[in-house]
Each structure stands twice: as C-alpha cells, then as structure tokens.
Amino acid sequence: MTPIAVNPDALPKPSGYSHGTLVGNTLHLGGQTALDADMKIVPGGIVEQFRQAFSNVLTTLRAAGGEPEDLVSVTIYLTDIPDYQAHGKEIGKEWRELAGPVYPAMAGIGCTALWQPEAMIEILGVAVIPEERLVTPRA
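Above: the chain sequence. Below: its structure as tokens.
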C-alpha cells in the first residue's frame, strides 16, 4: 500500500512533513502543537495548548473520515509534566468535550523542548478508520 498524505486545508500548510499519513485504513497522525491558523502558539497555559493541539489532531483525523473513537493510540509530549498533572481534571474535561468518553492507549512523555520554543505540548496518534467512513485524499 502506498502512504497518502492527509493535509487538511483548515490547518497551516505543512512544509517538510504531513499532518497525517494514511496507509490502508490506518491513519498515522503527525505531532501537533498548539499552532493556530496564524502559525502562532495559542496564548494561555497548558489547558489552552492541549485544546488547540488536540483539536489540530482531530481536524486531520476527520479529514480522512475518522472520528475520535477511531483513535487507538495517543502520545503526548510535555515540557512540564507537573503542570500537566496539576491541570489534569481540566484537561480531562477538554478531552471529553472534544472526543467523548473513549480513551485509547496513551503515553505521556516529558521532554526538554518542542519545535516551537513556546510550545508546552505536542500530541500525535494512530487511528484505524472503518472502511465505510474512510475518505482517501487525492495524492
């Protein structure tokens, strides 16, 4: 199977990467930080950045016909794990608002920095989209 890039128009145009790569009905979701449409990290703290980064992931997922319940794995990179933990209930509320009550396999990984210096979080994932909903972008 040939990998197909998934780059929704609603997200900033990628350069040197893809927002997602579809292989069959498995979508590998590229890491998303809290970039907005103006290519700036959203202001505020970890909760606001989580919401934007996860929304960006979901935008790519939906461009391929996926829904949050199709996520099978999510990895979250964090520059400040204690800050994330301190806001866990708020972040959980954001997750449920955006994705519902289903949680895939997850990992949280601490790191010293992300691509944008002001980014506190980067989220990537893998989804398996049912054939009947799958939308294959033109290559």
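Strands lie at 4-6, 20-23, 26-32, 71-78, 105-110, 121-128.
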